[in-house]
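Practice problem: predict the structure.
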Amino acid sequence: MELTGLYERETDRIRQSWTLPFVPGRRFGGTKPVYVLTSPATFSGGEQLGYDLQQLGRATIVGERTKGGAHAREGFRVHPHLEATISVARGVNPFTGGNWEGTGITPDADVPAGHARDRAYQLALEHVITLTAAAADEARQALAGIA
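Answer:
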């Protein structure tokens, strides 16, 4: 499955990144919940991970809007004391055709970054409640402890 792409200005092509068709070992599974915590300091590669998983419907983004850096840049020295930083590529999501440049990623659960871990934990416990009765009882006790 194509996970993400990077449009490179120099080659006028999109370099695709794919998941491997086979990986040995145990699987996490495609239905277990995944939570990605974000803040205004989340940038570039961290944003790409969150954005791609969010667009695949595979993760819930918890925290604050990210910084908004989806364009790869390269520095060019124009003078011994001056460098120009120029965008040379941009992220391209295969599902949306877009990216998060300048806008950041909008969280699914918008909470202050300092509370993102607790909110993600709460969401995970709420998910566990929907599973077996024994798991639900344990999750309810844990939720009562953080409420």
